[in-house]
Amino acid sequence: MFASMVNSMMALICVVPVLTTALKLRSEEKARRTEHIHARGVPRVKYLAGYAAISFVSAVIMQGAVAVGLYISCHAVMEEPIALGFLMKSSLVYLPALWVMTGIAILLAGLLPKAADAVWVYFGFSFFASFVGRILDLPEWLGKINPFGYIPQLPVDTIHYPALVILTAVAAALTAAGFVSYRIRDVQA
Fold this sequence. Notes:
This protein is mostly helical. The protein has one domain. It contains eight helices and no strands. The longest helix has 34 residues, at 44-77.
């Protein structure tokens, strides 16, 4: 149970740099630095793809680092440490939720750039629903509004693969909608 709680907390902490990377596009636009990039003929989709790729890949790297860190900690204090494979599995299961958060950030940056920072409000709600919601025994539907509500708490729960596939599909759809929106909207000058 302790490992599942640590993984859950670390996944929510890993959202912060992932969202920061995804929203860097918006901060560059606010600082009026995108005008110079687009003036050189860099396609908008390619420009956004760079930020999106870094954001998605950093989620994988950070979750992998969480598993390795937990393994090193377990190995240092336990006679029979938890297997690295299990820790990796219990950490990487959070990737679809991180990707949904990234997809929301990209969608907002592409569709409603002035409201892109609203993803932080949703992140705060997700954090509240994931931790405080359990303590206060809030209704279960409230926890299911955030993507972390569908992630199994390993080793207590079993993996429900359809939910993870659906979350990944939602993340892909949000990201694609963000790309389409960014390609057709006016960039602040």
